[in-house]
Amino acid sequence: MPAPYDFHIHTTYLKCANETMTVPALVERCESLGLEAIAITDHLNAPEFLPQHALIKQDLAAIHSDMRIYFGAEVNVIDKDTGAVSIDEAQLAEGGFELVIGGPHTSYFSEPDKPAIIDLQHKLMLAVIANPLVDVLVHPWWFGAGEFKPGGPMEWLTDMEQIPDWHAKEIADAALAHGCAVEANHSAFFTENQYGPAFRETYPHYLASFAQRGVPISISTDAHDINRLNGIHEMMDILERVGVTREQLWTPEMRKPR
Question: Residues with Cβ < 8 Å from 72, sequence gap 6 or more?
Answer without folding.
Answer: 7, 39, 40, 41, 97, 98, 99, 100, 101, 252
